[in-house]
Amino acid sequence: MCGIVGYIGHREAYPIVIKGLKRLEYRGYDSAGLVLYDGADLKLSKTKGKVSDLEAKATKEISLNGTIGIGHTRWATHGVPNDVNSHPHVSNSGNLVIVHNGIIENYEPLKKELIKRGYTFKSDTDTEVLVNLIEDVQKKDNLKLGKAVQLALNQVVGAYAICVFDKQKPDEIVVARLGSPLAIGIGENEYFIASDASPFIEYTSNAIYLEDEEMAIVRLHKSLKIRKIKDDSLVDPYIQELQMNLEQIEKGGYDHFMLKEIYEQPSVIKDTYRGRLHANEGMIKMAGVEDNIEKFTNAHRILIIACGTSWHAGLVAEYIFEEFARIPVEVEYASEFRYRNPIITDKDVVIAISQSGETADTLAAIKLAKEKGAFVFGVCNVVGSSISRESHAGAYTHAGPEIGVASTKAFTTQITVLTMIALRLAKIKGTLSKTEYHTYLSELEMMPEKVQEALLTNEVTKEIASVYKNASNCLYLGRGYNFPVALEGALKLKEISYIHAEGYPAAEMKHGPIALIDEQMPVVVIAPKQGHYDKVVSNIQEIKSRSGKIIAVVTKGDEQVRALADHVIEIPESSDPLSPLLTTIPLQLLSYHIAVMRGCNVDQPRNLAKSVTVE
Ligand code: M6R
């Protein structure tokens, strides 16, 4: 995935574009570029590397004037990250410039055809093919840019969000989307374009989110027109008021977004349940659930589809739904689900979990589930995202923008939403006793305070990080509700510190992974008092007898494990089902500190992007 930005109006475009790209760098950061039109010619600068490298280069090599400009921060799909493959790409005539987020799947035949027609290519990208295709279409019938873009896109197979302009007509930018997000900020005779609204939040709070297969021509002194790419029909623009504020997308004094987001968890969990959880009245009210309550209560099965951390939240939810609401649950990787022939009926409820709401595999899995007649409920963080719109109904997590590539607050807020749904169903189905139901409600309401307390583990995790920062491998073990937390802890460590880590159900250790244990192997064991405590203590003993180094996450005051482990991290007491909201906190902090100590780029780990909008 990539980030795209555009501006047209009365201000200098460069500062808006460069700042916008910095905010979108979470979407890709292996190369960056921008182009401005200064009234005479295009000023283009692009480079392999980060937006800061682009800034340094652009300041030296081009004049930074111009009130129209577009920019791009890239996560490479076609062609290695280098200066030439970076966007923007320019058409053969030198008139059209484009930035693109997505993949043009049929670019090879299109390229061959264009080569036959005399076009030449500098880069290996699909995007350079697209800009020349647009030019070719435009030239053939002397078309306006908007029409040429539309006809060209009708020849394209794939996904895109594009921003394109013609230096011969520098009063308009043409934008379009299919499968990749695109927002248009509307100011006073000025327009901001971006992959999400963060680049223009300080300029306007009015935005339009283009739908798939829509395009728009943003033109100075004219009102915005949106059309369907396929049939040219006009669409009424729906202008939304943005909920985001500037503070939410800045680091607020923290060294990294990831740390800020870890520390935000007490408050965002509260935001997640605010207005929904009413512990005193013994009620949970979630509009998306209530409006479709029969779908849930009549469901023969709940199928959860997601990727990465969201998939781990789905695994926690599997345990919770089955325990609380006694509905059978299956959890699937969206990428697997979409490519097999799953048995789905209209008695299934599919819950799609996604922080970004843009993950390509999850989106495709939803479409498949809908085709097969299932009711799809989306649990997303990003408001107005593709998955939230594609779902029949849903619930937002309200975690605020998550910018660090490693998901943290998304995980705990997803679990919060899913727990509330399970409790609501349990109440209707009578599958929990009254006492249990009310106790869980109150406990969930108290979670922000407990998570705050769990954050006090920061210092001890930092000390432990300094001991293991040079480890090559690490095992994470947990049982029951905390098995998915072990997976999540391992994922956090590997993605930001590049230490190989594996998560396992603790009891599975003896079926293989135990062979890995020696005095070099740190083993993080999640061992809260509730749940399968005695069994996990036995697992700890097995590790100890093989000289493994034990880092145990335990309930405050646990002396038994303290006597066995090399390090203990104490978290507040909780029930077993809600414990993942607490046990996950020190694991996030541990991976954070190890990554910082190893000099890794915590917020932008290598090879990754915040949301994977391509296959
Ligand atoms: O936006 P999504 O929740 O759909 O993203 C899913 C995964 O790509 C994401 O959780 C990824 O695994 C994170 N890097 C984990 O920290």
UniProtKB/TrEMBL annotation:
Its EC number is 2.6.1.16. Keywords: Aminotransferase, Cytoplasm, Glutamine amidotransferase, Repeat, Transferase. InterPro entries: GATase_2_dom, GFAT, GFAT_N, GlmS/AgaS_SIS, GlmS/FrlB_SIS, Ntn_hydrolases_N, SIS_dom, SIS_dom_sf. It catalyses: D-fructose 6-phosphate + L-glutamine = D-glucosamine 6-phosphate + L-glutamate. It comes from the Bacteria. GO terms for molecular function: glutamine-fructose-6-phosphate transaminase (isomerizing) activity. Residues 2-221 form the Glutamine amidotransferase type-2 domain. CDD domains: GFAT (cd00714), SIS_GlmS_GlmD_1 (cd05008), SIS_GlmS_GlmD_2 (cd05009). It is found in: Cytoplasm. The active site is at 2 (nucleophile), 610 (for fru-6p isomerization activity). Residues 292-431, 464-605 form the SIS domain. Transmembrane segments: none annotated. Catalyzes the first step in hexosamine metabolism, converting fructose-6P into glucosamine-6P using glutamine as a nitrogen source. PANTHER family: GLUCOSAMINE--FRUCTOSE-6-PHOSPHATE AMINOTRANSFERASE, ISOMERIZING, GLUTAMINE--FRUCTOSE-6-PHOSPHATE TRANSAMINASE (ISOMERIZING). Homodimer. This is Glutamine--fructose-6-phosphate aminotransferase [isomerizing]. The gene is glmS.
